Amino acid sequence: ALLDLSGVQEIKGTWMRSTSLPCTYMPSEGFTQQTLIWSMERDYGTSTIFRRDDSGDHVLLSQFRDRVSVPKHSPGDASLLIENLEIPDSGHYTCQVIWRSKNNSLITKEVTTTVKVVKVAATKPIIRASEPGLTFPAGARASLTCVANGSLPISYRWFRSVPGGKALLLSSQAELAWDSLQPSDTGKYYCEAENR
């Protein structure tokens, strides 16, 4: 079959995760992809989400701004990546590709995928504790890593306890690192893990 789009009928996506809606074809000699349109059908009609043409890529629906993209440099791959899935993203998505042939005729094909966004059981982050009371030589490189299980995304913060004072926030990464430990770095450190 010349210039046939292939996709899938249904995709179950997980809330707050990413999912890719496949839409692919075999590039064919003498046919140039002119326009690619991804649209979404919901209760009140169809809206165009994404359009790629000579003037570039355009995201036309504000709810998808900064959350959708199509591979740039893989000919034949028009798949739509949706990040940070929200519940209202559920619906019927249509990938439409228009090619121009050598004799300037246009060929249009489309494929539709139903997306269902599901919530997974959310779990609080549980930090896996490291052994307390680590001893390092002065001048050594060292790092402490905070590891937690639970629903993603998880953000981390490292603090240093200050006796009788407010704890100092040292890092908003999972890892707290020192290039060269000093005796003044001796103390109590703790990490916090947080998710939605």
From TrEMBL:
InterPro entries registered for this protein in UniProt: Ig-like_dom (IPR007110), Ig-like_dom_sf (IPR036179), Ig-like_fold (IPR013783), Ig_sub (IPR003599), Ig_V-set (IPR013106), VSIG4 (IPR039939)
Superkingdom of the organism of origin: Eukaryota
Domain Ig-like: 1-112, 125-196
GO BP annotation list: negative regulation of complement activation, alternative pathway; negative regulation of interleukin-2 production; negative regulation of macrophage activation; negative regulation of T cell proliferation
Molecular function terms from GO: complement component C3b binding
Protein name per UniProt: VSIG4 protein
Species per Swiss-Prot/TrEMBL record: Haliaeetus albicilla
